[in-house]
Amino acid sequence: MTVRFKFLSTAILAGLVGLQVQAQGLRLNPGAGAAATSNQAATADFIVAVVNSEPITNSEVQREVGRIQQQMTAQQRPQPDRKRLAADVLDRLINQKIQLQLARETGIRVEESAVDQSEQSIAAQNQLDLATLHRRVEADGLSVSQFRAQLRDQITLQRLRDRELAPRAQVSELDIDAYLQEQQGTQDVTKMNLNLAHILIAVPENASADQVQSLQARARKAQERARAGEDFALLVRELSDPSAQANGGQLGLRSADRYPELFVEATRELTQGAVSDVVRSPAGFHVLKVVEKASAGLPAMVVTQTRARHILLLPSAQQSEAQARARLLDFKKRLQAGQADFAALAREFSQDGSAAQGGDLGWTNPGMFVPEFEGVMNRLAPGEISEPLLSRFGMHLIQLLERRQVSLSQADQRASVRALLREKKLAEALRNWTQEQRGRAYIELREPPL
Predict the structure, then answer these.
(1) CA angle 31, 34, 38 (to 5 degrees)
(2) How far apart (Å, rounded) are the C-alpha atoms in residues 410 and 413?
(3) In a domain? residue 441
(4) pLDDT tens for residues 359-413?
(5) Which residues contact residue 18 at a Cβ distance below 8 angstroms, ignoring those fewer than 6 apart?
(6) Is there a domain that residue 434 lies in?
(7) Whole-prediction pTM value?
(8) Is residue 31 located within the same domain as residue 152?
(9) Which of 63, 123, 138, 228 could form a disulfide with 133 if both were Cys (CB 3.0 to 4.6 A apart)?
(10) Whole-number Å distance between alpha carbons of 20 and 235
């Protein structure tokens, strides 16, 4: 048993919004509601579409349109055209209705405890208790039962898509090799990420010709010492202008177009670790070192790793989810009171393969755990213990041990590329699969949403 699992990202799920597809089985019925007047439509709810005999109403569309507009207002983003937004929302609701029907037909069920946990997670992310979250939901015109129904639908869709799309998104070692070769072979500097370090020998605004010549000679001497292998950060501390000494002179990893053009040109042909010729700018003379140089399509070479441990209890006929949660709550209470040791409890009670290591999951990169587990883990401070949480693997109690910044090894980089390619394949698979499902459905469009 393990909690590691590649998953469908929320960014891909969000891609359903506004997805426009032409499907077989689409039936247009523009005259179906011709008898209704605009005044009646404004005061009474009506059906805007039927999907395999299930209706979608104008009020459903308008509720989602209102939610999106409210969110965009809060984010100070420009409002889209309301009719276009309503059409896009209807299109998404049709897709969602088709997929929920498929989930029911194929036996996907969501337990109450999963809805409870999703609700608690939203409350925690917004730093609210459940009672306050419910009041906020009701203030937005949604009952708590409607809110929970929406959460249940989201979980159902996630499980359906995990099941249907995972087989379509397999990434081979040849796929990774081809991607790396393509990205590393690019010669377009605008598609490169650079981290440059520099020594700045500042030139005063009214410097005489002799002063400029002397300062240029200092810059050339710094260049010679850097190319001879002296520690660049120490040279920065010794020789560089104080304004350019922070971070050992490093300017940070950024796209090439965010660097001065003369810096990009001076390092265009240089490999990682190489030192440039002396470069003159309005500020003075620069000696540049290429700290990192990579295609913008490659994953970051420095990531935040996390080390955590957990206790996993598996719900069963002998131990319900509620009993597993209560048991983990008791463990947490004992741990916080100093009456128990986490590793000892994990070795004795955890039903995960990590039990023998005291529940220690080792150092992990982002994306190595299922989202419900990783989301909770990422919100913990070092030493903090989570509330019990339910994942598809069981009930967990997590303790964050520490975090660190590390440079990716070649194996880690390949793993990151695998995840990146898988996300791309999942996005394409989602689009194709959504079109396939619409092609099998009967869809009747009636009155357009108002």
Answers:
(1) 140
(2) 5
(3) no
(4) 999 998 887 888 889 888 988 888 999 999 988 788 999 999 998 877 777 787 7
(5) 88, 91, 92
(6) no
(7) 0.51
(8) yes
(9) 123
(10) 58
